[in-house]
Amino acid sequence: MSKYEVTKSIDVRGEVCPVPDVEAKRVVKKMKPGEILEVWIDYPMSKERIPEGMKKMGHEVIIFLFCDAAIASNNQIKPVRSDRKIPDLLKEVIDRGGKVEICGICMDYRGITTDMIVEGSNPSGLPELAALIYESDRFISLMA
């Protein structure tokens, strides 16, 4: 692929467990190397379970936090609910062998410094994201 174009898109907003997870796995199984899947979700638990499911399917999991998603890497964020502490969930991904990359410019713009981010995550940039997309056998973009 010469451009980074979404080749498949699914919209599972409004769906709850297990529909978003099952649908993402179903589509990924049919994807060819180099294809990009965009998943529109609003069910919070699927944002955790879809990457875990991909790992169980034998795929490497790399999460790239871009724009406002960079805020999720801030360990100093106090969640409204204890089950929504996203930095802890990102740390679990890292502890299970996944990687978390964060747009460095996005961090700077939002006042996030390296001492504030999840241990094991890595400030990165758009060239690294482009390489990640290019080198991945499959790429999933989770949209909210």
Alpha carbon gyration radius: 15 Å
Distance between the termini: 26 Å
CATH architecture: 3-Layer(aba) Sandwich
- Number of extended strands: 6
Query: Order of strands side by side in the largest beta sheet?
Result: 1-2-6
CATH fold-level topology: Hypothetical Protein Ychn, Chain: A
Helix amount, in percent? 25-40%
Give the amount of beta strand, in percent: 15-25%
- 3D shape: globular
Compose a concise summary of this entry:
This protein has 144 residues and is α/β, with parallel strands linked by helices. The chain contains five helices and six strands; from the N terminus they run βαβαβαβαβαβ. Helix 1 packs parallel to helix 2 (44-56).
Describe the structure.
By secondary structure, this protein is of the alpha/beta class. The protein has one domain (8-143): 3-Layer(aba) Sandwich (Hypothetical Protein Ychn, Chain: A). It contains five helices and six strands. Helix 1 runs parallel beside helix 2. It starts with 7 loop residues before the first strand and ends with a strand.
